[in-house]
Amino acid sequence: MAAVIYRNDPAYDEAYLAGASVAFGVFDGVHEGHRFIIGEAANTAREEDERSAVITFDIDPDEMFAADKLKKLMTNEARIAKLAELDVDAVVVLPFSREFAAQAPADFLEVCFGGGVPRHIHIGSDFRFGNRAAGNVEDLRAWGAERGMEVHGHELVAERGVPVTSTRIRHLLGEGRSREAAELLGRPYGLSGTVRAGRGEGRDFGFATANLEVPGDMLAIGEGVYACYAVVDGARYKAAVNVGVPATFADEAKENIEVHILDFNENIYGQPIEVEFIEWLRPMRSFDSTEELIATVMGNIAWVRENL
Ligand SMILES: Cc1cc2nc3c(=O)[nH]c(=O)nc-3n(C[C@H](O)[C@H](O)[C@H](O)COP(=O)(O)O)c2cc1C
Ligand SMILES: Nc1ncnc2c1ncn2[C@@H]1O[C@H](COP(=O)(O)OP(=O)(O)OP(=O)(O)O)[C@@H](O)[C@H]1O
């Protein structure tokens, strides 16, 4: 379990990273590729008896530069918490801003490490930094060479010949390919939310649903019906889940995730739950009759009961 240290905390010691072995990046999803380079940073630290750290930002830079098409895999809090579970001494969180990002590559590095230059830095070969992402691994190497920092630029971890990236995982999830996304993440994709009151019809239909309204920039998972696990108060249950505003009730409905938790009958309005997406079952669709909707959803619930 790593310590989480914020650079803008007045108590932060600028020399903290001096001599350390670090991995640097955003790390949305904390996927297999991310864990590989963080593991390499930890290995170097062990071999050389140095401190190990992950350096990341408080927000995802895409929140500033690509907000309209952003589909984050994790909230910033969850990302930092997940990084802190890894086997490193610390997660150092740098404040990200437009001004910070707009600096020329060398200035950007000066701000990041001027007060304490790491001895080793591990990054993937696609690592870019500074204004318009103009800095690359070679620039980092040149900067490091003058300051005693060794740069380890790793070939990207690939699966079926294609690099594992957050972008690739977002595309898979958008197409409902939750199984493949889980392989690249190293765990099922999960989404958290607070349960809101729905229209209350699900209960009359024979399947109560916990409804979540997930903001668009956190809705990486594509529309459809999925076999899932729901985690409520630390307990894990099978669940049948609809993603997308229900097409049959498009005029009245707002919620975009509806979770039927199997063998569960408690009032959880206002409570946080987490949904883990395991298997895509079918596209979401509009039904001509309530009977057909109920029969189809009951079939999905039965599938989850038998197969998960
Ligand atoms: C597993 C599952 C699959 C669903 N599939 C669909 C669907 O394909 N089309 C649709 O319009 N609604 C679908 N729904 C949503 C139901 O229509 C919705 O849960 C119901 O209208 C009750 O809404 P309420 O909880 O807001 O009252 C599905 C719900 C669940 C739990
Ligand atoms: N598959 C991978 N193998 C090794 N290192 C990786 C891999 N993917 C990313 N990295 C490295 O991890 C750090 C964090 O990367 P970043 O947060 O940009 O993730 P990403 O998966 O490349 O995301 P995106 O798809 O949004 O570019 C960077 O140093 C990057 O080069």
TrEMBL record:
InterPro entries: FAD_synthase, Riboflavin_kinase, Riboflavin_kinase_bac, Riboflavin_kinase_bac/euk, Riboflavin_kinase_dom_sf, Rossmann-like_a/b/a_fold. One of its GO terms (molecular function) is ATP binding. Residues 184-305 form the Riboflavin kinase domain. Pathway: Cofactor biosynthesis; FMN biosynthesis; FMN from riboflavin (ATP route): step 1/1; Cofactor biosynthesis; FAD biosynthesis; FAD from FMN: step 1/1. Transmembrane segments: none annotated. It is an enzyme of class 2 (transferase). Keywords: ATP-binding, FAD, Flavoprotein, FMN, Kinase, Multifunctional enzyme, Nucleotide-binding, Nucleotidyltransferase, Transferase. Its EC number is 2.7.1.26, 2.7.7.2. One of its GO terms (biological process) is riboflavin biosynthetic process. The keyword ATP-binding applies. It catalyses: FMN + ATP + H(+) = FAD + diphosphate; riboflavin + ATP = FMN + ADP + H(+). Belongs to the ribF family. This is Riboflavin biosynthesis protein. It comes from Adlercreutzia mucosicola.
